[in-house]
Design a protein that fits this description.
elongated, 3-stranded antiparallel sheet, mainly alpha
Length: about 625
């Protein structure tokens, strides 16, 4: 480096790190400014060292204005251009790292401060970032380029500069759809052909092949999610929706979920929510049945972004131009959620759902696009339960106790039918008990819905099981944390081949087991049931981010054997009894003997007796 020597005993004249040690503030600023101005024109070895130092500083202090004022953005843009235009320089020494670091530095300094972003745009950072986004180097540089452009697109003052490069949106759409395959085929699949600088950047030189692969999956997810974030900035502007809302892109959005490695990103569902917020976006979405079905599944799941799917469905139902396309699929899904009182920041969500459905019925009760009688009946059933709740408030306590006792008797009849193998009869009894059970007895209703969900599982009716398990989870306090219902819904989703939804429920079930104070679980050395671990492993394979790419490129068989998670183990999740609800109990005390059998005063019931349905063995512990 050709800067003047600042410290006599430094072996490297003009060393940037010596510049940073300068005690005189004015000299320090002048030296840094000179360094930024001269660095892109120099060809000395060791340039990557100060750049990596700047990268660390940008990550640690992204809101510090010093380097912004002294020309760091002009320097980084010039270095990216140099790497793109001068391949001889790029391949020399360790210069191959520099475009990556430069783009990352731009992204770090623009992620929080709008005035920094304005300075970056004026410094000309967008054109070289766009070239990286095109794939002029590799996917690693694409990742940091889309990150930086996404930050610039976030601010009202700098979005027009990003949008003026018309190809950015199209490039991001293509990258969102192809990013996982790019990373898999160019890096993950061929461990012996990985570029060494990619491996170093991924692991910071601290890991082997296995760690590189894990980090590659994380970075691939980020590449996709950051592409979606940038597209999301465009989606707020109606003039770009026609470009975004192509059927071939919309149908893929629900499957873009970030995976377990990037759970903090709303990914595809976040973009769908932005699209559905505008009338120009709702039309194309409503015309994609697969998207509506996926939104219903996400709405009835334990996904962190559940509320986003619910918002989408409600907006589609409220729009007179789209409601008739979605009502038959969306209504059953949102009705299952009508008992939710609060979900995140959404207060009185169940009331909002009912209000929307009532408006649909009132506005479209007759005519060609009228609401079906089945949907009307389902809405009326929920409305009737609300009226029952109001009516129960004025009931004498003795009358309520009578209703509770009657529901308990019918429930026990259902338990008896279940024990004798009459699953259909048991489901009918649980339905009868729900009709009798006071609406205010939420814990008991959770039990009844969850038990009926188990009946539907055994009857090979996964949709019914999902509906009842969802209703149980909505009634439970806290919402979506009833372990047995999570497990039953996880199995139902598995029956439908919905790996992601099954995986999320199974993971939450395991979390609930690990935190449980249930004496039966507490007595185990491992609170996590083996059958749950098996299901999680199966679904992690099925929902693996690289699965489609691996199938396409011959990494795995199209229908790889993921094993039968039921056949080799038992479902030890206990059926709840009246003693676990707020409806009272029949005075029996449950206990277990040393052989793991559950005992009550009616006798011994084998904890591990199985019901087999079409080759899938479910192990049930009976109610008592």
């Amino acid at each position: 480096m050709s800067m003047d020597k600042l410290i006599p005993d430094c072996p490297y004249p003009g060393c940037f790190f010596c510049v940073m040690k300068e005690g005189n503030p004015n000299k320090r600023r002048a030296s840094i400014m000179k360094f930024f101005r001269e660095l892109p024109s120099q060809d000395d070895d060791g340039q990557v060292l100060p750049i990596s130092g700047l990268w660390n500083t940008a990550m640690a202090h992204p809101n510090d204005p010093e380097f912004i004022e002294l020309g760091i953005f002009e320097c980084m843009a010039a270095l990216i251009w140099k790497g793109l235009k001068n391949r001889r320089w790029l391949s020399h020494d360790q210069n191959i790292y520099i475009p990556y670091y430069a783009a990352h530095i731009i992204g770090s300094y623009t992620m929080n401060m709008e005035d920094f972003a304005e300075t970056a745009v004026n410094a000309g950072v967008i054109p070289p970032l766009v070239e990286l986004l095109r794939g002029r180097l590799t996917w690693v540089e694409q990742r940091v380029a889309v990150r930086a452009l996404g930050h610039l697109a976030t601010y009202a003052s700098t979005f027009p500069a990003v949008a003026s490069h018309g190809e950015i949106l199209e490039l991001c759409i293509q990258l969102a759809m192809s990013s996982l395959e790019i990373v898999y085929s160019h890096f993950y699949q061929n461990t012996d052909r990985r570029l060494s600088y990619h491996c170093d950047l991924l692991t910071r030189g601290m890991g082997g092949v296995e760690m590189e692969s894990r980090k590659a999956e994380e970075w691939a997810s980020q590449l996709q999610c950051w592409s979606l974030q940038l597209i999301n900035c465009f989606a707020f502007k109606p003039e770009f929706l026609s470009t975004i809302c192509k059927p071939e892109f919309l149908v893929k959005l629900p499957g873009m979920w970030g995976g377990l490695v990037n759970e903090n990103s709303p990914a595809g569902i976040g973009l769908l929510r932005t699209i559905c917020h505008h009338k120009f976006g709702r039309g194309p979405v409503s015309s994609c049945p697969g998207v509506i079905e996926a939104l219903c599944n996400i709405a009835r799941s334990s996904d962190d972004w559940q509320y986003m799917a619910i918002d989408c469905l409600l907006w589609l139902l409220q729009d007179p131009n789209t409601f008739h396309k979605v009502i038959e699929k969306a209504a059953p899904a949102v009705l299952d959620l009508a008992e939710i009182s609060t979900l995140g920041d959404h207060k009185k969500l169940g009331d909002s759902i009912l209000n929307v459905l009532q408006e649909c019925i009132q506005s479209h009760g007759t005519g060609r696009n009228s609401v079906s009688n089945r949907t009307k009946e389902d809405v009326e059933e929920i409305l009737h339960s609300r009226e029952r709740f109001k009516w129960e408030k004025s009931m004498p306590k003795e009358d309520l106790h009578i209703k509770q006792a009657a529901a308990l008797v019918v429930k026990l009849e259902g338990n008896s039918l279940f024990s004798s193998g009459n699953i259909s009869g048991a489901a009918s009894k649980y339905s009868e008990a729900l009709a009798l059970c006071p609406v205010r007895s939420k814990k008991e209703r959770v039990v009844l819905y969850s038990n009926r969900a188990q009946c539907y599982l055994l009857l090979q009716q996964p949709l019914g099981a999902i509906s009842d398990a969802t209703r149980a989870l909505c009634l439970h306090n806290p919402v979506n944390r009833h372990a047995k219902s999570l497990w039953r819904r996880a199995q139902a989703y598995d029956m439908l081949g919905l790996a992601k939804e099954s995986l999320l429920d199974a993971i939450l079930f395991i979390n609930e087991c690990s935190q449980s104070t249930d004496p039966d679980l507490s007595s185990r050395q491992n609170k996590v049931p083996d059958y749950a671990e098996r299901l999680v492993k199966k679904q992690m394979r099925a929902a693996w981010l690289f699965r489609e790419a691996a199938i396409k490129h011959g990494g795995i068989d199209c229908e790889a054997d993921v094993g039968d998670v039921y056949g080799q183990g038992s479902d030890d999740s206990e059926w709840e009894t009246a003693s676990e609800s707020d409806a009272g109990h029949d005075g029996r005390k449950e206990m277990s003997n040393n052989d793991g059998e559950w005992i009550n005063d009616e006798g011994i019931m084998d904890k591990n007796e199985k019901h087999s349905t079409r080759g899938t063995a479910f192990t049930i512990s009976y109610p008592y």
